[in-house]
Structure formats: C-alpha cells, structure tokens
Amino acid sequence: MSMETLLSCRHHLYLESLRSGWTALWCPRYQSPATEISVITRCKAFEDFFAGDCDPFKYNGLHEEITVPFSHCEKLFVGDRYSEFEHAARVYKPEMDYYTQVPDDLDFYETVFPRLR
C-alpha cells in the first residue's frame, strides 16, 4: 500500500478550484501525468472513457498514465512519486506541494511530513 498526500494549502486550493476537465499532476520521475492524485469533474473526456460496453481487456497491458484521457496535466506544483527508489524522508523538501507512492508503513511524524501548511 502507498500514501498520497497534499502538503501545501496553495495546492489544495488549486485542486478545490477546478471546475472542468480531468486534471492530473505532473510526475517528474517518469515525465508523464501522475494518476495517483487527479481531479475529475463532469466532462466529456470522463464520460467517453467509460462509455460503451465494458471490455475488461480494452486497456490490458497499457499503463494508465498513457490511457487515461486527461484534459490537463498541471506542472506548476512541486512533488513526485517516491516509493520505488527512495525513502520519502530523504527526498522531503519544505517547498514540496505533494508526494505520491510513499509506503504507508513508514512513521509519518508531523515535524517531518507537515500536511497542508
């Protein structure tokens, strides 16, 4: 299991303000949209993605980062996906707005991982 966390109020306010489209955050590690934190509003892209017959093999073998029809990928905020390569405590920086894919078995202390500052 992993944890996704918003760290900054400016990021939280931005996500709360979205009123259209399917917005994902940018994942610098993989140079692609990060699917762990996204905002879906009622939009044509979302409806089209789930329209039609249910075919469990339609996206078989494809990564969701390239199959999900995001209408916007936001690169303004600082964050990344961390669990595969590094311990989150070593990569945390005060300017981070979010992090994803951090193992949930780590001890998260408010002094190390402040939330919504």
Description:
This protein has one domain. It has 4 helices and 5 strands; from the N terminus they run E-H-E-E-H-H-E-H-E. The chain has 117 residues and is of the alpha+beta class. The longest helix has 9 residues, at 9-17. It starts with a strand and ends in a 14-residue tail after the last strand. The strands form 2 sheets. It has a 3-stranded mixed sheet with strand order 3-2-4. A two-stranded antiparallel ribbon has the order 1-5.
Secondary-structure topology with pairs:
Elements: E1 2-6, H1 9-17, E2 22-27, E3 32-40, H2 44-49, H3 64-67, E4 72-74, H4 88-91, E5 98-103
Parallel strand pairs: 2-4
Antiparallel strand pairs: 1-5, 2-3
The portion of residues assigned to helices is: 10-25%
Strand order of the largest sheet: 3-2-4
Mean pLDDT figure? 77
For the secondary structure, the number of strands is 5
> How many structural units, i.e. domains?
1
Largest sheet: 3 strands, mixed
Taking pLDDT < 50 over at least 5 consecutive residues as the criterion, the unreliable ranges are none
Structural class: alpha+beta
Distance between the termini: 25 Å
Order of helices and strands: EHEEHHEHE
